[in-house]
Amino acid sequence: MKIILTNDDGIYSPGILTLKKELMSFGSVTVVAPDVQKSGVGHSITFSHPLRVRDVSINGDFIGYGIDGSPADCVKLAVREIMKEKSDLLVSGINIGANVGINVLYSGTVAAAIEGALLGIPSVAISLEISESSPDIHGAAEIAKNIIAHIINKELPRGTLLNVNIPHISKDKIKGIKITKQFSGDFDEHYDRRTDPRGVAYYWLAGTGWPKIDVVGTDMHALKDGYISITPLRYDLTDNAFLEEVEAWGWNK
Asked: 167 — phi, psi (to 5°)?
């Protein structure tokens, strides 16, 4: 089995390096990831400058390819240029921080999995919720391995990916897995207004807390309740329920 492994935290992130070790039991794992932190870039791709690929090693051991682009760029290059044969699976993660609710629209981690799905590869995004204590990357990688082992034996419909979020609690306290919908409400966020040494105001996004509304059956609720959340996502954003009504607005009169 040939697996592409990417992320948006950068190729040196402990999340991607730990997950690579776990996934190697399934087959060959090729890491193609941004060479620096690219969180929150969404599904951006690079037009304005050429993309450079470099071999990345740690302590003399080759770990993968670093790209000076976005997570979506990494997937495109992996599929179009770096891999010699079609991959069987694309995994994006482990992201340090949950990607639930509207965060999936901003997430480079999820965008990489969407790009894989666009290119016809079964794709999974893996994220670990964070809190005040240090994240258990090794525990999350073991959980991810078990989930991916189950996914490998199934067939994802073309264009569909799975968005997996792991709660920030010890493995023995996780209650199980819930298949969830994406939470669609607003998150609690605000900006800090600050002043630079020249007296000019600037703004820093500070509040990204959970919303007060908690909807049962959503990815957010599952995490808060101590469950792993798995949400099937599609990149087709068409509002099919509203489509016929818009057609009936008499556009050609």
From this structure: -70, 155
Domain assignment present for 88: yes
Domain that residue 55 falls in: 2-184+214-247
Mark out the alpha helices in the chain (DSSP H runs).
14-23, 71-77, 103-106, 108-118, 137-152, 219-224, 240-247
What type of residue sits at position 163? N
Q: Are strands 191-195 and 201-205 parallel, antiparallel or unpaired?
A: antiparallel
Structure tokens at 60: 């003399």
- Contacts of residue 207, defined as CB under 8 A and 6 or more positions apart, other chains included, come to 188, 189, 190, 191
Residue type, 193: R
Identify whether 209 is part of a domain. Answer: no
Taking the complete model, does pTM exceed 0.70, yes or no?
yes
CB proximity list for 135: less than 8 A, separation 6 or greater: 96, 128, 168
Which pLDDT score is estimated for 183? 92
The answer to whether residue 164 sits within a structural domain is yes
**What pLDDT digit, counting tens, does each position of 7-26 carry?**
999 999 999 999 999 999 99
Q: Which residues of 133-166 are buried (b: 16+ CB within 10 A; e: fewer)?
A: eebbbebbbebbbebbeebbeeebeeeebbbbbb
Other CB atoms within a 10 A radius of the CB of residue 4 amount to: 28
Asked if omega into 228 is within 30° of 0 (cis), the reply is no
Give the type of residue at 48: S
| 98 vs 79: CA distance, rounded Å | 26
